[in-house]
Design brief:
alpha/beta, Outer Surface Protein A, domain 3, TIM Barrel, 3-stranded antiparallel beta sheet, 15 helices
Length: 481
């Protein structure tokens, strides 16, 4: 007779109930007492269904055991002992996969000199790290990029255009003309173009704020928190901090721009890890709708790199904010911690990733000269370009990248239960830390698993106590800036 063994899943508890997060399908299932008894009994063992009934029938009932075995087999929590563990298949996206989001780097110049700013080598060389690339994108190149985006978006009704930099607003003249051109050309093709941008807020003059409001441009502000945090690294080239300059500008933007949520994006460093205080300041005192946090991308050994206990502190504070989000969601209140919101949406939708993000696939970055890169972080890097806006995407380069970076080729990820949501982590992080985009972010693995477990437990609590809250994730969502 066929023997049964446990397959690949991650168990977790929420709201006093037991759940399984299935790998690699990424399904979340509530299990009853009989199913839990079957799984406990199979721990380290190989048994037939008849043996399970014989051993557990008195305790939970023979019929309940039979039903539990059938259900656990159906969701692949258990399976034949002779079968090898399931692995993701190296299936590539179909040819002509549409572009969803284009990030247009309209300038690689910045009026700040943030110490931790990422780039392609290990040393920050202000104003020269892009080599021969033009400092500002021309109107002609921007128009060509829009044409490229609309063509590559295929049958998609909506295309997303994000303006980026450097400091994006340094090239405001091109922003204005590009948005108008994209809106006109999109309408001619029966497409809607949604716009967003990222800025450090230093150049938010009244006329720019009015333009953002009038055109319903989504805005993300790069800011590191209250004045002490902001002025540690986000400084002008003369060393002067930027907080006092940007505070009134941000307040005015938040007062005027109410058609779309305004978010803050915080870079965490070893010296700036008071996550909860930063969150409170940005949401409660400044009025941001949501705040997202990301650890600084850097090689080992930098004085601002997060290491060891720093990750533990970050996780503990993330978890506290996640519990606050959970209680707010159960009571149908808003909570602006976007890190948990984004992961909950992926869990709810059953996302099982072959790739950690859309880089080189549904998302591409365009450099100031019109070269198309894997994403905005690689825009301007000769080693990571996959085409130009004039000639289109080099499909051989694109699919060579996708084939090489599929999660199935990351041996360190094969046994990780969190791989459906991680898939090895950010390519740019890997490139900076390990010198190659193909490396999984091993320095981050324990953190990712712990954070994913927290998110699963929050999801289980919300699903049990206020399941209607999760309906919002079933609606079409705008792409965040």
């Amino acid at each position: 007779m066929t023997t049964l063994v446990k397959r690949e899943f991650h168990p977790f508890e929420a709201a006093g109930e037991h759940f399984l997060y299935m790998v690699p399908s990424a399904g979340v299932f509530h299990i009853d007492q009989a199913s839990r008894a079957v799984l406990d009994t199979l721990e380290g063992r190989e048994m037939t269904a008849a043996e399970l009934v014989s051993e557990l029938g008195t305790e939970v009932g023979a019929d309940a055991v039979v039903d539990a075995v059938a259900e656990l087999q159906e969701i692949r929590a258990i399976g034949p002992g002779r079968m090898p563990p399931e692995k993701p298949l190296p299936v590539l996206p179909p040819a002509g996969f549409p572009l969803t989001t284009m990030v247009l780097n309209v300038t690689n110049k910045c009026n700040l000199s943030c110490t931790y700013c990422y780039e392609y080598g290990e040393d920050k060389i202000v104003d020269t790290d892009y080599g021969s690339k033009p400092k500002f994108m021309s109107e002609e190149t921007a128009r060509e990029a829009v044409d490229f985006m609309l063509k590559e978006s295929g049958a998609n009704r909506v295309a997303h255009l994000t303006f980026f930099g450097g400091e994006t607003l340094l090239n405001f003249k091109v922003l204005k003309k590009t948005l108008a051109y994209a809106r006109t050309q999109g309408a001619l093709l029966g497409k809607e173009v949604e716009f967003s941008l990222t800025t450090n807020a230093t150049l938010l003059r009244p006329e720019i704020i009015e333009w953002l409001v009038d055109n319903e441009v989504g805005v993300t502000i790069s800011i590191d928190g209250p004045q002490e945090s902001q002025d540690k690294f986000r400084v002008f080239k003369n060393g002067m901090g930027s907080y006092e300059l940007i505070l009134p500008k941000i307040k005015e933007l938040l007062r005027r721009h109410t058609s779309r949520p305004i978010g803050a994006r915080v870079t965490l460093t070893r010296q700036n890890l008071d996550v909860k205080s930063i969150f409170r300041h940005l949401t409660e005192e400044m009025g941001f709708w949501e705040v997202g946090f990301a650890p600084v991308t850097t090689a080992d050994g930098r004085d601002y790199a997060i290491e060891g206990e720093g990750y533990d502190s970050m996780l503990a504070q993330f978890s506290e904010l996640a519990l606050e989000f959970q209680e707010a969601a159960i009571e149908n209140r808003h909570h602006g911690f976007s890190n948990i919101k984004d992961t909950l949406e992926e869990i709810h939708k059953g996302v099982s990733k072959a790739y950690p993000c859309g880089a080189g696939l549904g998302l591409m970055g365009v450099a100031t000269d019109g070269e198309v890169a894997l994403c905005h972080r690689f825009a301007g890097s000769e080693d990571h370009k996959i085409g130009t806006v004039r000639d289109g995407v080099d499909r051989k380069l694109q699919y060579g990248f996708l084939e090489k970076h599929h999660v199935v080729n990351k041996t360190d990820c094969h046994t990780c239960w969190a791989r459906p949501l991680c898939a090895g982590g950010c390519y740019h992080e890997a490139h900076t830390r390990y010198g190659t985009t193909t490396a999984p972010n091993l320095h981050y693995c324990d953190w990712i698993r712990a954070w994913t477990d927290t998110c699963l437990r929050v999801y289980g609590e919300i699903a049990s106590r206020n399941p209607r809250y999760l309906d919002r994730f079933d609606m079409e969502n705008r792409v965040p800036a």
